[in-house]
UniProtKB/TrEMBL annotation:
<dbReference type="InterPro" id="IPR002579">
    <property type="entry name" value="Met_Sox_Rdtase_MsrB_dom"/>
</dbReference>
<dbReference type="Pfam" id="PF01641">
    <property type="entry name" value="SelR"/>
</dbReference>
<dbReference type="InterPro" id="IPR028427">
    <property type="entry name" value="Met_Sox_Rdtase_MsrB"/>
</dbReference>
<feature type="domain" description="MsrB">
    <location>
        <begin position="81"/>
        <end position="203"/>
    </location>
</feature>
<keyword id="KW-0560">Oxidoreductase</keyword>
<protein>
    <recommendedName>
        <fullName>peptide-methionine (R)-S-oxide reductase</fullName>
        <ecNumber>1.8.4.12</ecNumber>
    </recommendedName>
</protein>
<dbReference type="InterPro" id="IPR011057">
    <property type="entry name" value="Mss4-like_sf"/>
</dbReference>
<dbReference type="InterPro" id="IPR006311">
    <property type="entry name" value="TAT_signal"/>
</dbReference>
<comment type="similarity">
    <text>Belongs to the MsrB Met sulfoxide reductase family.</text>
</comment>
<dbReference type="GO" id="GO:0033743">
    <property type="term" value="F:peptide-methionine (R)-S-oxide reductase activity"/>
</dbReference>
Length: 205
């Protein structure tokens, strides 16, 4: 089995588990042009493999005031389901650990009034700069690029018979949302995220 086939099979198993638990909903909006998205940097033409075992991962680290602290090797956060349930709200657990989708317009999705960055709710990995957020009209926070490409994992998702690219946090392998090819320039991409998976850190200085 090829690397791509293994990744697709993994996504199918995750979707089936989510569907059986009643957690998976289809995030609407945006046709997907898979070759274009892969060319934009998803694993150099191949989807990145999702990790579920302890180990180190190279992340671009940022301070709360937005300073780039460089690439550092950090321990990937791997927990049991029981530990995740105690760490996350029920909705966050459904979205981040079962690949669910929050209801549109149910969480904060407008551009924040001040500069800052968005971190993963589960492990605090820096994910998006508020300066790259835009109002997509979809009811979910939307960004035209991640704060650092290495901080997110992009994998093929063919659930519901639709080819999409799912986005997960590289620091803990938690599902964040999907990326579509109908965003603004300069990338033309729309990283459509679940509000419940993000924590906004305002820049005070």
């Amino acid at each position: 089995m090829s690397r791509i086939d293994e990744t697709i099979a993994m996504d199918r198993r995750r979707f089936l588990r989510a569907a059986l638990g009643g957690g998976a909903l289809l995030a609407v909006g945006g046709s997907i042009a898979l070759p274009r998205l892969l060319a934009a940097g998803a694993g150099g033409g191949l989807p990145a493999l999702v990790h579920d075992q302890p180990g180190e991962v190279a992340l671009e680290c940022f301070s709360d005031d937005g300073r780039d602290l460089g690439v550092r090797q950090v321990q990937r956060l791997v927990l049991t389901d029981a530990q995740w349930r105690s760490r996350l709200s029920p909705l966050a657990f459904d979205v981040m650990r079962r690949a669910g989708t929050e209801r549109a317009f149910s969480g904060p999705h407008e551009r924040p009034a001040q500069p800052g960055l968005f971190r993963c709710v589960a492990c605090a990995t820096a994910l998006y700069n508020a300066a790259t957020e835009f109002d997509s009209g979809t009811g979910w926070p939307s960004f035209w690029r991640p704060i650092a490409k290495r901080n997110v994992i992009e994998t093929r998702d063919d659930s519901f018979g639709i080819e999409r690219i799912a986005v997960s946090c590289a620091g803990c392998d938690s599902h964040l949302g999907h990326v579509f090819d109908d965003g603004p320039q300069p990338t033309g991409l729309r990283y459509c995220m679940n509000s419940v998976a993000l924590r906004f850190i305002p820049r005070t200085a």
